[in-house]
């Protein structure tokens, strides 16, 4: 039976290195930890998420509830999403996109329910983020039914913990609040996300550390639990629209 409640979240920005691929992994981790089923789609020719997923497959470390597909054209992407919805086995779809924007950015927007643009707390990244925000505004002016377009939010990422945030970081935060449709929660700079990129989904890392024979290693589970909570809150805010 088709799942009419399936939602599609696309990570999109006009710049590479802002954390789209890591966010796809982290948000997928949060969704899996909440018991949802997930489809991850990589449309980025660089294939960061593709390589990550293949590495997990080779180790037998892909958790239940998640599937993966590499889409090479907009038609391929749309067909995959339609098939997932009709199969009724997927709650959330996460799409990674090219860092430079793609020829089919408009098409990706058409199949998404929510667009998310990650941005780092720097002047240069803010300027590039503004280009993505402007693109979406222009898209709304080009389509016949703009209200059918996805929501678009900006997500501040790799933000230092409060004790380490400088006046520059605080200025960047206030500027982002003024300029962009900002998700109400920032994604902090955490070693848990670095280890996720190396080792796998956050929920699996939580379980691995919790079950470790060494008590000192078991205590490390908290770092990953905090990351799951953070991304779960971010995901809730995104889906709220």
TrEMBL record:
Top-rank lineage group of the source organism: Bacteria
Gene3D superfamilies (UniProt xref): P-loop containing nucleotide triphosphate hydrolases (3.40.50.300)
InterPro entries per record: DNA_Partitioning_ATPase, P-loop_NTPase, VirC1
Protein name as it appears in the record: ParA family protein
Organism per entry: Rubellimicrobium roseum
Pfam families: VirC1
